[in-house]
Design goal:
Oligomer: single chain
Helix content: 25-40%
Radius of gyration: 22 Å
Number of strands: 13
Order of helices and strands: HHHHHHHEEEHEHEHHHEHEHEHEEEEEHH
Distance between the termini: 66 Å
């Protein structure tokens, strides 16, 4: 039987851990140190100076200037890179490492993990750095807090934000309103309650709201909670009879797998999983991996350790990002690596949310629809991710569920089938159109001209500090 040529050719690729010792600043780091979560946390890269110390002469000075300007003028998230993540940039596992200087710098600029974890000024668009309707809490999660830190957006599901920090900060973070330290552009929202009081308030609300059955425990990232504190919260959560699903959200499964491989964490997850199973509660871990370069043996080991401890599933929720994973090949390579090598189920790919300074990352709805079509038929059905648009005030919708779509102006309309907490008395909530916007630079010339004529171009080219767009506490 002849082999049929396909648009995508499947090939199983064994995982390889990049050698961190190829980076000058970590040349003397032992395997024991590298495998320590404490060492990883202590050696996170937080400043341009620290990046310079690690990279040595691999990068040209122009890159650091580019990075410093972005940190001063555009970044909505402060820099925080665990060694594990930095080591996956230009990993040099399929060939020799580029030579120091111009060649390595070109490869570093082009690296997909670098593009979203370490954005530089030249990455951002100069014509439309922000969409006119971009907002710092684009999904209005804070507006839907039932109590501090608990977003009740869907009828039967809630998001519990237990912490406002992560082991790593993604440039495109949808919770840039709350998560991380302030940047020159963003004065971050802060929790007002002590953690114990916030957790008590969340649990009290869930006890008196039995229609909620599904809790996503997140932040930030639950890996930044001391394990004893997270375990205590989860055990109390599992005592509530109405809770049937608990999902732990942690990008650190990829960004710092050493945390989830720590014996105390593995043992603690085992205790929580045992109680969840006894009470008939589905316990899962949701992580966030955007590039196949990030799927390494350490990540696979962490996922398998969680499954061995009794977690029912480990799933991936990625984000579609231009220059990172916006091709069928990139998505399928990532999904097969997750499914075949790491026992992580591909679950969602979100369209990048409409936060400020994200236009260079966002793709159009039409392109997202193309990607969903292109990846169908290759993966098992249960491991074929859904490409979704998280529409403000509506929630997650498959990209083909759009009600109407003006491709010339990049304006799509969506409808919903439930009310959020903000619409309890709104009789038109289920018939009102809600709008999502394509990046303007992806539109045809006529559409771009329309936006230029109808938007305040001066404010877009030189945006005001983002605190003015969404005052703290508003």
């Amino acid at each position: 039987m002849s082999i049929v040529e396909q648009p995508y050719s499947y090939r199983r690729r064994p995982l390889v851990e990049p050698d961190w010792r190829r980076l000058p600043g970590w040349a003397g780091v032992s395997a024991q140190e590298w495998s320590s979560a404490q060492w990883q946390r202590a050696h996170c890269v937080k400043t341009v100076r620290q990046l310079h110390d690690v990279m040595g002469d691999l990068l040209t000075e122009g890159f650091y200037v580019d990075l410093e300007r972005d940190q001063a003028e555009r970044a909505t998230m402060s820099m925080l890179l665990p060694p594990q993540m930095l080591s996956t940039m230009v990993p040099a596992v399929d060939g020799p490492m580029p030579s120091a200087g111009a060649a390595y710098t070109r490869a570093f600029y082009a690296d997909p993990v670098r593009r979203y974890m370490l954005p530089v000024f030249s990455d951002r668009r100069s014509d439309w750095p922000s969409h006119p309707y971009a907002t710092r809490d684009s999904l209005h999660e804070h507006d839907m807090w039932a109590v501090e830190g608990l977003t009740h957006r869907y009828p039967t599901k809630v998001l519990a934000e237990l912490v406002s920090t992560c082991p790593q900060y993604c440039g495109h973070c949808t919770r840039m309103d709350l998560v991380g330290t302030s940047t020159p552009q963003v004065a971050k929202l802060r929790f007002g309650l002590k953690p114990v009081d916030r957790q008590t308030g969340i649990l009290d609300y869930l006890r008196r709201t039995p229609q909620v059955r599904d809790v996503v425990v997140s932040g930030g990232d639950v890996a930044n909670l001391p394990w004893h504190s997270l375990e205590a919260f989860l055990m109390r959560l599992l005592e509530i009879d109405s809770i049937r699903d608990v999902r732990l959200a942690t990008k650190a499964l990829m960004g710092m797998p050493q945390h989830w491989l720590s014996p105390d964490v593995v043992e603690g997850v085992g205790r929580v999983a045992t109680v969840a199973r006894e009470r008939g509660v589905n316990l899962a871990i949701h992580t966030h991996i955007n590039s196949v370069l990030s799927v390494t043996p350490a990540v696979a080991a962490a996922a398998k350790a969680m499954l061995d401890a009794g977690v029912g599933a480990v799933r991936n929720q990625g984000v579609l990002l231009a220059g990172v994973n916006d091709s069928p090949e990139a998505l399928l390579d990532l999904c097969f690596a997750l499914q075949d090598e790491a026992m992580i189920q591909p679950y969602y790919f979100y369209m990048c949310d409409m936060i400020p300074f994200s236009e260079h990352w966002r793709v159009s709805l039409a392109h997202a629809q193309h990607l969903q079509h292109a990846i169908m038929g290759y993966l098992p059905g249960f491991a074929t991710p859904r490409v979704v648009c998280d529409v403000p005030f509506v929630g997650k919708r498959w990209v083909h569920q759009v009600d109407s779509y003006d491709r010339e102006l990049g304006i799509s309309s969506w409808r919903k089938n439930y009310r959020t907490s903000l619409e309890a008395d709104d009789g038109d909530a289920l018939t009102r159109d809600h709008v999502y916007y394509d990046p303007i630079h992806t539109l045809p010339e006529t559409g771009q001209r329309w936006w230029q004529e109808h938007a305040d171009a001066a404010a877009l080219v030189t945006p005001a500090p983002l605190a003015h767009l969404h005052p703290i506490g508003a």
